[in-house]
Amino acid sequence: MSDVPHEVVKLSNMRRTIARRLAEAKREVPHFYLTIDCRLDALLGLRAELNAGLAGRGIKLSVNDLLIKALGAALEAVPDANVQFAGDSLLRFSRADVSMAVAIDGGLITPVIKDVGAKTVSRIAAEAKDLAARAREGKLKPEEYQGGTASISNLGMFGITQFDAVINPPQAMILAVGAGEKRPVVEPDDQLAVATVMSATGSFDHRAIDGAVGAQLMSAFKALVESPLGMVA
User: Fold this and answer.
1) 1 pLDDT tier (thresholds 50, 70, 90)
2) Does position 17 have pLDDT exceeding 90, yes or no?
3) Which of 55, 66, 125, 185 is the most exposed place for a label (fewest CB within 10 A)?
4) What is the CATH number of the domain that holds 124?
5) C-alpha 134: how far from its chain's center?
6) Which of 15, 129, 134, 206 is catalytic?
7) Is 103 helix (H, G, I), strand (E, B) or coil?
8) Is residue 8 part of a domain?
9) 2 located within any domain
10) Is 57 a member of any domain?
11) pLDDT tens digits along 54-110
12) Of 66, 65, 25, 20, which Cα lies nearest the Cα of 42?
């Protein structure tokens, strides 16, 4: 026992479950990580336009709503990344159900937005807002936070620029996104410019997803973020 003054905090059932599942994930799931930088200027511009048009309906899109849509669309574009390892087989999903990490008192929960690829960003925004609010109130039903084909975790609001997330078993990937920040970039004509850039890191289960497939998913995600009209058309 340490002689530094301290208190003993008994683990809640939620904290014990989180500890067990994450230790299991790091012990049993062979993680590999891929990071890609995405220019956000076009997405931020589109968000501003959409929010102006949606103001009368009381809907306000967050950047995370658009990133959820981009991940769902990328998973559908690269179906070999929308999978789970199942012993001697793989489960390949025909739709993208995206779990979003929500911090709550004493832990973390991952409510699921189902069939992201088929939903408008306004619908995703409304569902994400409702799920997050009820998650913090402890009012989610089990079917609302269980399942999901992939996850997204966003720590950008805390100023975190890049991090590696732990996979949420039995899922085979999680996308960790950081804050958008002004960075120098080189334009196609070799001119130096300033752009808003976000780093995104995918954590992948190497039993189910190989490096090339993971890279295809990250590339598809980047393309949608940088040309966002393609995911709202």
Assistant:
1) low
2) no
3) 55
4) 3.30.559.10
5) 19
6) 206
7) strand
8) no
9) no
10) yes
11) 999 989 999 999 999 999 999 999 999 999 999 999 999 999 999 999 999 888 999
12) 66
Judge whether 177 and 197 are in contact, CB under 8 Å.
no
Mean pLDDT of 26-34: 96
Closest CA to 65 of 93, 43, 45: 43
Domain, as residue range, for 184: 13-232
Alpha-carbon distance 167 to 42, whole Å? 29
The pLDDT value recorded for residue 134 is: 94
Q: Is 6 a catalytic residue?
A: no
Task: Tell me the backbone φ, ψ of residue 217, rounded to 5 degrees.
Answer: -65, -45
State residue 200's pLDDT score. 98
Place of tokens 């929010």: 51
CA 212 to each of CA 29, 81, 204: distance values in angstroms, whole numbers, following the listed order: 18, 10, 11
Which among 109, 174, 175 has a CA at the least distance from the CA of 146? 109
Domain count, the chain: 1
CB atoms within 10 A of CB 35: 14
Give 82's strand partners: none
Q: How far apart are CA 207 and CA 205, in angstroms?
A: 5
**Tokens 């990328």, residue located:** 74
Q: Are 84 and 170 in contact (CB under 8 A)?
A: yes
For the chain, the residue count is: 233
* Within-domain flag for 124: yes
